[in-house]
Amino acid sequence: MERTQGATLALYGAAALAEIAGCFAFWAWIRLDRSAWLAVPGVASLCLFAWLLTRADAEFAGRAYAAYGGVYIAASLLWLWLVEGARPDRWDAAGALICLGGAALILAGPRGG
Fold it and tell me: Which end of the chain has fewer CB atoms within 10 angstroms, the N or the C?
């Protein structure tokens, strides 16, 4: 089942949100001295992340993960801004754009037979 590029990017966006939320649950527990019970939804969120990546329309897992990496970086900077209240600077934005360009190249690049 082939997805459109927009659907694939939406899937990667959902996976990024699940991964970042899961990792942040552990960050909050260990680094911000919050309840260890945060590990429970954190693990559930990380499981959702892994499942979502299996839905990616890619012939090989490594290619799906590589393309996802650019989306993850951009989503992490959005998390930084929207959840943690620290606005990304121009270097963050430039780095994210470079990574998204790489992800687009991986997703849309012609494949030789």
Answer: C
